[in-house]
């Protein structure tokens, strides 16, 4: 069973791991730029970062203007601050949006970047330390940064081995007050990553093992997700599960589920994880027809058949978005051009994608 796997991020997990492991930050340099959104000032992440950097005698500046579905404009602004401040490294704290934006900031701070989506990523970027405060994207262990591409009216990823952070701290305590909707959406994103990794042409024995364990943990937390009540242990479990799913897609990439979801996010503001949750069950039903043998392994990893899984997801989603058929035809045409369509073990034509969209969010 030949495979290759590369994931060069040092991971440290556990309660208060940032403060307890402050020394790990010392070698990164004297000056840090913290790239974040607004919530890290309230959930304890920024406080712990300040404590850890302070202990090492490191100084820092904060760029806290990263918005959900980050724009290239805020990336460039963050990079200008990194340069004027003379940052030696970046600490990213937040959900996927600040973590992804930080990777692009690290790139633009070190290289002259014109169009970020076509820029050839060669040479160094600023070293990064990532601290997730949602449990979903796995960005702390991936080489992807997903940004809003207004010219292309979509979300688009940049990717390079240099965009892996050097270090990730996993502490579920920052999620104590994470809103239920964000918790559910991000969990659906992580579940989608694990499942999509199993259906990727780049999947293999190791990513399958990671995906199975990720799904065991994430779906094991389903009772808490349904109730909306979480212990610290639940938070740690969801976070660990989402990091494992990130390790899966770091190697495999994603499939048409993510490809279709970008239009729902770009044109309607559907949160990224929710978009995947809306689309995943109908996508899996189609895969059942196309690649039944492989799907038996997915069913085994889910611990339930696809209708049972679809029901569980539907309960979490509540009322679905619905779009008219002309809109969905446009989204199918856009998704068909996305490179993650070809990344799937099953072939999905534009017609097939439209069928999934109709079943998921048809009007
Ligand atoms: P997010 O956009 O980072 O955050 C969603 C919301 O939750 C924001 O309003 C955020 O506020 C808030 N929030 C974050 N942590 C919180 C906490 N601990 N307590 C209270 N509120 C908190 O959402 P996300 O789902 O984590 O990330 C989505 C992004 O990641 C998308 O752009 C998606 O395309 C990308 N993504 C990347 C990868 C990858 O491999 N790199 C994979 C999948 C998805 P503030 O931001 O203001 O703090
Ligand atoms: Fe995702």
Short synopsis of the structure:
The chain has 363 residues and is of the alpha/beta class. The chain has two domains: 10-174, Rossmann fold (3-Layer(aba) Sandwich); 179-361, Dehydroquinate synthase-like, alpha domain, CATH 1.20.1090.
Number of helices: 14
Using the 3D structure, state the CATH architecture of the largest domain: Up-down Bundle
Strand order of the largest sheet: 1-8-5-4-2-3
Level-1 CATH class name of the largest domain:
Mainly Alpha
Write the layout of secondary structure elements.
Layout: E1 10-13, H1 17-20, E2 31-36, H2 45-55, E3 59-63, H3 72-85, E4 89-94, H4 96-110, E5 128-132, E6 144-149, E7 154-159, E8 167-170, H5 180-198, H6 205-220, H7 222-227, H8 232-252, H9 256-268, H10 272-290, H11 292-302, H12 306-317, H13 325-336, H14 350-361
Helix pairs in contact: 3-4, 5-6, 5-8, 5-10, 6-8, 9-10, 9-13, 10-11, 10-12, 10-14, 13-14
